Amino acid sequence: MTTTCDQKDLFTYVLRLGDSGLVLGQRLSEWVGKAPMLEEEMALANMALDMIGQARNFLSYAGELEGKDRGEDELAMHRDVGSFSNPLLVEQPNRDFAYTMVRQYFYASFAERLFEQLQHSADSRLAGIAAKAVKECRYHARHSGLWLVRLGDGTEESHQRVARALEELWPYTGELFEMDELDRRLLQAGVAVDVQAMRADWREALDQVLVEARIPLPSDDTWMHSGGRSGHHSEHLGHLLATMQILPRSYPDANW
Fold first, then answer.
1. Residue 255 placed within a domain
2. Residue 221 within any structural domain of the chain
3. CATH number, domain with residue 97
4. How many Å separate Cα 119 from the centre of its chain?
């Protein structure tokens, strides 16, 4: 680590990144055995593994920063809902394939831009994790973006499904670009990324995909959900964690 920022701030920042990857990876893994075609099942499984791999890297680092002998397993499997700091977007249920692809594009396109900049962080450990993650998120954004076009420009039903998913999930995107005092302190130290400055580029890329998919562009005036980063989650996260954590919680002394 090559920074002079507050270690508690850095722990919280890294934990947020780890939680986002962990929760979205769990959501994507729910498609295994249920995807509409074998090739897409493999793609979703690989994206889930990418997200969980990113989560492992971030949570391992967070555990070291915290200094309380909590490793990646403890941080992933032995925390309750209120201590998770992922954005609300990634915990939303899969519903159907169109819904999953919209959610994936929203987050992957954001994460691609986040990690592109984070790989230049003054914190060498964060920069190294981001350099690997950006390649994965670039693929995720391209893959899900292609599906938005196929579904939007496909049958009447597929068009309606992806348009409905976009309308329902759009109010969760604002939280991705929120910055609090912790973010600003780390940005000043050269560690964090100014996500607000990324928003215009993210929106431009989204609009290009939606025009090609023949989907109406969402309004910037839409009211946005918030609270995930401060531990205020939807009811969906509790159900997700109950499934994800049942074995480690049932056998807390086991080595995973």
1. no
2. no
3. 1.20.1260.10
4. 17
Whose tokens are 């692809």? That residue is 101
User: How many of the other CB atoms lie within 10 Å of CB of 214?
Assistant: 13
Contacts of 117 (CB under 8 A, 6+ apart): 193, 194, 198
Across the range 120-143, mean pLDDT stands at 98
Structure tokens at 151: 């579904």
Cβ of 254: how many Cβ atoms within 10 Å?
Answer: 9
Instruction: Read off the amino acid at residue 185.
Output: R
As to burial, measured by CB atoms within 10 angstroms (0-12 exposed, 13-18 middle, 19+ buried), residue 8 is: exposed
pTM of the model: 0.95
136-189 pLDDT tens trace: 999 999 999 999 999 999 999 999 999 999 999 999 999 999 999 999 999 999
Mean pLDDT of 6-17: 96
